[in-house]
Amino acid sequence: MRLTSSLILNAVLCAAVPPVPRQQKPPAFFLAGDSTTASNGGWGDAFLTVLEGGATGQNEGRSGATTVSYINGEGVELLQGLVTDNTDDYDCYVTLQFGHNDQASTANITMDQFQSNLQFMSEKITAAGGTPIILTPLTRRTFTNGTLDDSLANVSEASRKAAQAAGVPMLDLNAASKAYVQAIGSSDADTYNLAFGDWTHLNEHGATVFARIVADLVEEWRLAFDGYITPDEELSEKIKEGIYA
Ligand SMILES: *[C@@H]1O[C@H](CO)[C@@H](O)[C@H](O)[C@H]1NC(C)=O
Ligand SMILES: *[C@@H]1O[C@H](CO)[C@@H](O)[C@H](O)[C@H]1NC(C)=O
Ligand SMILES: *[C@@H]1O[C@H](CO)[C@@H](O)[C@H](O)[C@H]1NC(C)=O
Where is the signal peptide (predicted)? Predict the structure, then answer.
């Protein structure tokens, strides 16, 4: 009787012992997208500056890019190369944020094509050993009668569908950035414009704020990034409260 119960106890204890954890690698973030991610106008460079604790990254945003031009311009091969070159030392994540240029009528890209292009990119990144993260596009900051224009609704919807179909994580940057911009209003939002009347691209101040929105979404998605993203609680709190920062 004693023997039996102690055997049972042993079995229970053994089962409860967690496996030896794999040494955790720091994350690497490779940022793919259009000019709203790219250097000089996007949030990408500012996001890279908040990485710490051995985390790294590279901004591969391309001004004017659609999913079609990015794929045709060997962007996927580039991302795959970055993942395979870094996967020994890092957990590799690739953010995909497109839509601003894809939705222009001159691009001649249907929403179905846009969605399948995002799925294609996701599959290639996964095959290379990376984790794709689809971001819905950063909001523009144009208002009509005090209400923020919802001008990226179709590409945001297609981005969500692509993430769901590909079974990859989706961070709703469009919703988060819209909520913040609507809350602060148009005249404060104008202070983030890269140039007068440019309600799409970001100056350095804007890049800092919207990179923090991305960082907060990333951390909410995966709390394990704690220690790899430098916190700025004051800025995060203001964004959450919809107070101009
Ligand atoms: C748009 O794309 C479709 C399908 O790819 C093609 O048949 C059509 O010629 C294109 N239109 C223009 C104006 O480029
Ligand atoms: C904005 O306000 C003007 C003036 O009140 C009005 O004529 C117009 O229809 C409004 N536009 C929208 C989209 O609500
Ligand atoms: C997507 O929405 C925008 C803004 O409403 C519109 O201008 C564009 O024509 C739409 N594109 C497609 C392909 O549906």
Answer: 1-22
